[in-house]
Amino acid sequence: DAPSLAKVLRHTYAGNQAERKQAEATLKKCAKVPGYQSILLQIVTQSRFDNHVRQAATILLKNIIAQNWSVLHPTGPRAVVISPRDRDVIRKNLLEAIVVQPRHQIRVQLLQCLYFICRCDFPEKIPNLLQEIMKNIHSKDLSRIYGSLCALRMVFKNYEYKATEKRQFLSTHLVPATFPTLIRVFDALVKAPPKPEQYEMMRMLIKIFRMSTLSTLPEPLTTPAVLSPWIRNILMIIERPLGQRAPGDQKELKSLPHIKCKKWGLITLKNMYEKFGQEVLLREPKKAFARLFDQNYSKPLLKSVMTVMKLHAQGGPVTDRMIETCYKHLTAIINHAHMYQLIRPHLKFLVVDSILGCLRPSKEDLEMWTEDPQEYIRKDMDIMEDFHDPRNAATSFLVDLVRIRTRDALPLTLSTINAVFTSYSQAHPSQRDLRSKEAAMRMLGCLNKLLLSEEKYAVPVERVITTHVLPEFRSRAGFMRARACSVVGSYSKLEYKSGDSFAFAVKGVCECLTSKELPLKLQATKAMSRIVKNEHVVKYLRPHLNTVFTEYFALIDNVPNEEVVCTLETLITHTCDDIGPYTMGIAHRVATIFLKMIDRDQEDDESAFTALQCLRVLQTLLCVIPPLENAPQLFKQLEKVYQKVITKCMNKELLEFFEDILDISSAMVKFCH
Predict the structure, then answer these.
(1) Given this model, what pLDDT does residue 563 score?
(2) CA distances from 631 to 576, 581, 620, 638, 671 (A)
(3) SS3 string of 463-480?
(4) Helical (H) or strand (E) element with 181
């Protein structure tokens, strides 16, 4: 019964390990008893049980449904048979459990249960679900309305990424049955005095609308009469001023209901424009709707985007994801002449106030640089962090703007960069704005492809780098030296007229490699991987090779990362005539790192990629070193190192490395003969 099972669940989070294991074993036995899942749901819905027990019951029920609902007769060690009676009980009572549930943590788990059940059973086995949800939405109880909207979102979520033919149910049933009521609710919420719970409901409505329009447009939404109220309400939410002072901290800001609502509104309309609003990218019959969208909604959407960007430039409450979405929308529309004409009057604001301000390193970044360099590096190298980084979105927009609208954008951008550099150099050292100059250097770095593509820019670019970038290698601020490394790396293909300037740049990067600041060392390795490809670099790099290799290995010990090891391979390839004295040391250190990586958790992808790159370095080393037949002693030493690597892989049967191991073995055999 429920009290007995609740007692067992209470022991699953006991401090005593023996109690926990005994409780888990009991639950495994109970799982085979018919009625078990029904009792779990009963525990969740009854307030007489404490919240920890109900939370444990919800998680357990969600896991059972996720793993076993889709199979009537599951097999395997973790398989749990959900009886037909339990299935009926859950289908009939789950929605009510969701709409009356006051605790967010429990409701989230119950919603996941509904999602997995809908994937298998909706609409065939639960034909009344939609009707029951809409009945609750018509209720005057805000808690029931919100719970029902959350449940409806789970229904729509099943069609979010489905193929076009499987999304037809949206056009024929879901949207016609729900959207007339939903837009009335939305209208009432927008007109009512704003409250946090109302913003949560509006966020659910926006998410439902987004899921409906993510990949294909349901037929009812192709008419302005149906679509316009939705877009009008979303734009009103985006532009609505905040009645209270918002926190400056991004984490706290992201959690506010009205900010989350604005964010999802921007994301939804940006996606709609990209998918359905660009006529030149679409084929018939979609062009007709694109013209309609462009005529009715593109200009109001741009107005809302510019409102958000101006608020951000003034230091207002705008999250990183919001400004990133704005930049991506602007990137999409600058290709279209009629939309660009609307942006053109705002170019100075966009370049000088918005982009330059966005690119400035935040105080939080600088604190992380000094206090938690490992986390700074993790964020810097995380692909997903990059994907939603507003600074990456800003630089992408700037690059496209300058490339597509060169006549307007390039002179403005270069004059902005020059103005920052001039102001910085003329100011007293104690009054210099380091963060603004770092942002201007970043702007200069992202324009490298365009400025290197035409010879007329070569001399001015070299002059700017020599005058304003290279002196930052002497800066006390590590993040300024790092940006100097980045710019030098970006312009690695520049043909310097002054050999002294290039020599100073190479020396500066090498000195940054010896820094105790890990983020700076990492940026220096990235720059080195690019400048080493310059055909003139070897003579300037030769005096520093011993230092460079030593620091590379020290960095790999601290940051065992695929990209760092890959940079080492590039360095070896382009300095092959000079690495003879370092061959044995390189082979030994790389082999040691490889053996260390493969002994880590097999599920650690980063370690696996780093290990694979280490093998590539060992292969490259065999290809570029002088003929081994002329140095038999060196070959004997290398053979011992490589033998450890080969033996370890063979003994552990590491199949993912076999191809590279066989290539290394073949090369070693060739040298033997």
Answers:
(1) 72
(2) 16, 12, 18, 11, 11
(3) HHHHHHHHHHHHCCCHHH
(4) helix 175-191
Q: Is the pTM of this model over 0.85?
A: yes
Tokens representing residue 252 in the block: 């706290």
CA dist list (Å): 298 to 83, 270, 277, 278, 304: 53, 10, 8, 10, 10
pLDDT at 603: 62
Please give the pLDDT value at position 572.
83
CA 485 vs CA 267, 310, 419, 520: distances in Å: 35, 32, 21, 9
Local confidence band at 85 (pLDDT 50, 70, 90 cut-offs): very high
Verify cis geometry, omega within 30 degrees of 0, for the bond prior to 285.
Answer: yes
Reported confidence tier of residue 511, pLDDT bands at 50, 70, 90: very high
DSSP state of 494: -
Report DSSP state, residue 670.
H
Single-letter amino acid code for the residue at 420:
V
> In angstroms, what CA-CA distances link 177 with 130, 144, 161, 181, 672?
8, 19, 21, 8, 77
pLDDT in tens, 436-483: 999 999 999 999 999 999 999 999 999 999 999 999 999 999 999 999
d(Cα 330, Cα 323) in Å, to the nearest integer? 11
**What is the C-alpha separation between 351 and 313, in angstroms, rounded?**
11
> CA Rg, the chain, in Å?
31
**Residue type for position 362:** S
Residue 459 burial (10 A CB sphere; 0-12, 13-18, 19+): exposed
Q: First and final CA of the chain: distance in angstroms?
A: 77
Count how many Cα atoms sit within 13 Å of the Cα of residue 348 in the half-sphere of its side chain.
Answer: 2
